[in-house]
Amino acid sequence: MAKKNNSKPAPSGSAPRVDLAEIQRILEFMTEHGLEELDYERGDLHVRLKRQAASGPAAALLATPVSAARPAAADNPSPVEAAPRASVAALAPAEEGLHIVKSPIVGTFYASPSPDSPPFVKVGDAVSRGQVLCIVEAMKLMNEIEADQAGEVVRCFVENGQPVEYGQALFSLRPA
Predict the structure, then answer these.
(1) For domain 88-175, which architecture applies?
(2) Beta strands across the sheet bearing 126-127
(3) Cβ atoms < 10 Å from Cβ of 123
(4) pLDDT (tens digit, 9 = 90+) per residue, 112-138?
(5) Share of the chain above pLDDT 70, in %
(6) Which of 43, 63, 99, 108 is the most exposed place for a label (fewest CB within 10 A)?
(7) What is the b/e burial string over 64-95, where b = at least 16 CB atoms within 10 angstroms of the residue's CB?
(8) pLDDT tens track for 146-159
(9) Residue 75 DSSP class
(10) What is the 3-class SS of 91-123, one letter each residue?
(11) Contacts of 176 (CB under 8 A, 6+ apart)
(12) 119 vs 67, which has greater pLDDT?
């Protein structure tokens, strides 16, 4: 007896459903492995993700959707080459014992709560655990980034208004 197929095909011309959590996991994978470009296919969905080449430690992530009608290339997958990975150690000062505060999300770095306000912290400031260091805006949400330990701000790795990646170093702190 034949099985009945209850799944309905997507109407022609409609875009495939995109799972944003899945895209976020792919972006984290790219950052973790230092990838500059990634083509991702699943069924009718094909997404090309690229990071802009940047001279500094921050590089913006760009998502460029590609035609959903493109046939799957399961027979001949293209290899993805990994770019050299910039480690936090290369970004951090040579001093040992410094604590690095990293961005928990992809977004835009803001040093102050508004353009006409002073920055939350400056190099040389003493900070306590839980004190707001900056804001990272992601999808129009302002996320306050707090110090996860007390100490002195030694360095800020990012300039105001600059895009940041998941896991990117934002500040180095000398523990109190």
Answers:
(1) Beta Barrel (2.40)
(2) 99-102, 169-175, 151-156, 126-127
(3) 11
(4) 999 999 999 999 999 999 999 999 999
(5) 63
(6) 43
(7) eeeebeeeeeeeeeeeeeeeeeeeeeeebeee
(8) 999 999 999 999 99
(9) S
(10) HCCCCCCCEEEECCCCEEEECCCCCCCCCCCCC
(11) 126, 149, 150, 151, 152
(12) 119
Tokens linked to 156: 């800020």
Amino acid at residue number 11: P
The per-residue pLDDT for 150 is: 95
Q: Rounded mean pLDDT of 33-49? A: 73
Buried b (16+ CB within 10 A) or exposed e, 149-163: eebbbbbbbbeeebb
Which part of the chain is CATH 2.40.50.100?
Answer: 88-175
DSSP structural state of residue 57: S
Which segments of the chain are extended strands (E)?
A: 37-42, 45-51, 61-65, 99-102, 107-110, 126-127, 132-138, 141-146, 151-156, 163-164, 169-175
- Sole residue written with tokens 């102050």: 112
Q: pLDDT tier at 165 (50, 70, 90 boundaries)?
A: very high
